[in-house]
Write a structure and sequence with these properties.
By secondary structure, the chain is an alpha+beta fold. It has eight helices and 20 strands. The chain has two domains: 256 residues, Naphthalene 1,2-dioxygenase Alpha Subunit, Chain A, domain 1 (Alpha-Beta Complex); 108 residues, 3-layer Sandwich (Rieske Iron-sulfur Protein), CATH 2.102.10. Helices cover 27% and strands 27% of the residues. The strands form five sheets. A seven-stranded antiparallel β-sheet has the order 13-19-18-17-16-15-14, sandwiched between helices. Strands 6-3-4-5-10 form a five-stranded antiparallel β-sheet, with no helix packed on it. Strands 2-12-11 form a three-stranded antiparallel β-sheet, with no helix packed on it. The radius of gyration is 23 Å and the shape is globular. The two termini are 34 Å apart. The relative contact order is 0.17. The site of FE2/S2 (inorganic) cluster has 9 residues, from loops.
């Protein structure tokens, strides 16, 4: 069994705070103005910065495994098509025709040799090149090589597909960006895992309330009293701030048994649920034997979309295995729904004016880290 220095530190820190009867904390309570959730200018800045210039997970590599595969994505308010061209290269484009702007394909995914516009049938290769203009004599002098699809940055890392939803004027160093999380994400081998479930939900709340549901474990034994509470040590999580990414380790009660065990035999994964927050809106939530990858995308100041996939090490080989993972899936849907209900209730009460600020407790560390990182990114201090 191998354990990284970081995992060993997380275990030691968990045992230390349990021993001292305390929990992991930042020095001071933070008062977060509710205008951060209600101000249309704030919202616009968040969309235009966080959801245009940072990599967001939109799929698993199995979604685009073969040459000719494509998928579309519309939730950013920017129509995107991602393709695996016949040269094997993954590319992302604005799903917008260069003639007069029609959407090239409405299909969520599929297989194609070319993308042909429904309006006047201009045809593009999956490499984005404009191949054909019907009745070309009317476009004499038009340089086809200048009218390829507009390309967006896209990456395959850790078995996931990451897109940056706007044209960038510089190269993005995705590896430098993800480096603080790379050791753990590599060890999960997500590219070779099986997508057991995949779902998308539209929610009536600011994307920020949904984000915050995954940034602290203080709420587990209240909001999830009959579901997740018993599975974890109450409010005993440890958060590592990689500014802006955060690793949030939530211990299972059995982690305390490690006190009696030789540290050389310690195992991290079987003793923790881990929320790996990858700025600004991606989570890789690692359970002991499966993984949820979720992304939160704003669709309005008070609406958002939650996209999730459940990864398991291989397609279930037996009915028992199928039932086991189905049961886990059913449970997480209930747990997430408990979070969604609360988030929507916050949104519904937001304009009542009860709170000029929300109060972030000292052990709600992820809320502090998250808000500070968003503020820094909006101020131009965090860039990919
Ligand atoms: S808008 Fe696409 S071919 Fe005319
Ligand atoms: Fe929750």
């Amino acid at each position: 069994m191998t354990i990284s220095a970081e995992e060993r530190h997380l275990i030691q820190e968990t045992l230390r705070i349990a021993e001292q009867g305390t929990t992991h904390m930042v020095p001071e309570v933070m008062y977060n103005p509710t205008t951060k959730y209600t101000d249309p200018n704030q919202y616009e800045a968040e969309v235009n910065t966080l959801f245009r210039n940072f990599p967001i997970i939109i799929g698993h590599v199995s979604d685009l495994a073969e040459a000719g595969d494509f998928m579309t994505h519309d939730h950013f308010g920017v129509p995107i098509v991602v393709t695996r061209a016949h040269d094997g290269v993954l590319r992302a484009f604005l799903n917008v025709c260069r003639h007069r702007g029609a959407k090239l394909t409405k299909e969520p995914c599929g297989k194609a040799r070319t993308l042909s516009c429904p309006y006047h049938a201009w045809t593009y290769g999956l490499d984005g090149k404009l191949r054909g203009i019907p009745q070309q004599f009317g476009f004499d002098g038009v340089d086809k090589s200048k009218l390829g699809l507009v390309e967006l940055p896209v990456f395959e890392r850790f078995g996931l597909i990451w897109v940056v939803p706007s044209v960038q004027d510089h190269d993005i160093d995705i590896d430098a960006w993800l480096k603080p999380m790379a050791e753990q994400l590599t060890s999960l081998d997500m590219g070779n895992q099986h997508v057991f479930k995949k779902w998308t939900l539209e929610k009536k709340m600011s994307w920020r309330f949904l984000l915050e549901a995954f940034q602290e474990s203080y709420h587990f034994c209240y909001a999830h009293r009959d579901t997740a509470c018993a599975g974890y040590l109450d409010n005993q999580s440890v958060q590592l701030n990689f500014d802006p990414h955060v690793r949030h380790a939530v211990p299972l009660p059995k982690v305390l048994d490690l006190r009696e065990q030789d540290p050389e035999t310690w195992d991290y994964r079987s003793n923790f649920m881990t929320q790996n927050y990858i700025f600004p809106a991606n989570f890789v939530q690692v359970m002991t034997d499966h993984i949820y990858v979720h992304t939160i995308i704003p669709t309005g100041i008070d609406t958002c979309v939650f996209q999730c996939m459940m990864l398991i090490s291989e397609a279930p080989q037996t009915e028992k295995a199928e039932r086991y993972f189905q049961k886990n899936y059913d449970l997480i849907r209930v747990v997430f729904e408990e979070d969604f209900e609360i988030g929507e209730s916050i949104q519904a009460g937001l304009n009542a004016g009860a709170n000029a600020n929300f109060v972030f407790g000292t052990y709600e560390c992820g809320l502090h880290f998250g808000q500070k990182a968003i503020d820094a990114a909006l101020a131009g201090k965090i860039k990919v």
